[in-house]
Amino acid sequence: MAAVAEVFFRRLSRWQADQQRESIADLYEKTYRETGAPPRPPSTGARISYDKSPRATAPTQAFHDRTAFLDRFSADVQRPGFDMLIASSATVLVGCIYGYLPDRQGSWWYGRHDIAPATLGQLADSGRIFNVAELMVAPSHRRRGVAEELQDRLLVRVDAELVTTLIEPTNTVAKAAYESWHWHPTDTLPAANGRPALEVWTRPPRPHTQH
Predict the structure, then answer these.
(1) What are the beta bridge partners of residue 199?
(2) Where residue 63 falls among pLDDT bands split at 50, 70, 90?
(3) Spatial strand order in the sheet of 129-137
(4) Alpha-carbon gap, residue 95 to 110, rounded angstroms
(5) CA–CA distance from 169 to each of 14, 56, 112 (Å)?
(6) What DSSP character marks residue 200?
(7) Do the beta carbons of residue 140 and residue 94 sit within 8 Å?
(8) Which tens digit of pLDDT belongs to each residue from 186-205?
(9) Could you tell me which residues are beta bridge partners of residue 8?
């Protein structure tokens, strides 16, 4: 992979992540104000390009509200296996990714515990799933390999059998990006509890490549 010029990558501890929560929320707003934003997986992923236009549904607007994001982020920082990286250019935060080890009964499924696929629930119970909760890159640094570099650096340390993330079905830009990174859709979560419908995408932490 070609080096990403003028961008510095750094891993944050739980304490550091919590200290930077407002800066991360600023990046979240900047990322999702724009159409075609890179993916996010929620914990909220690799999250993504969400529709912030007046035509967006009420659940979507509420889900992507700054306060709602900060509530999710505060909870995610405390989850088992939390890991986070940020990307900075000079002193400006331009990207971040974080995830954790979910459990079958956690808010990973946004309160829809009954619809977690059985195989994923079993893997989660044994600590063999890592969920990418958010992946976002500022508009100024898209299409420069920052999102993929963040993902690679995060997943290289993941000791799990499977990685998951959540993407909105209408987010074709995010889905195309994730597909190019060896992710595949495996299930769908209907809209519930104030959040929009989401697709479950999965991949191994380090997919096999063909030579």
Answers:
(1) 167, 188
(2) low
(3) 8-12, 83-89, 92-100, 129-137, 162-167, 198-203, 184-189
(4) 25
(5) 31, 13, 17
(6) E
(7) yes
(8) 888 777 767 778 888 999 88
(9) 88
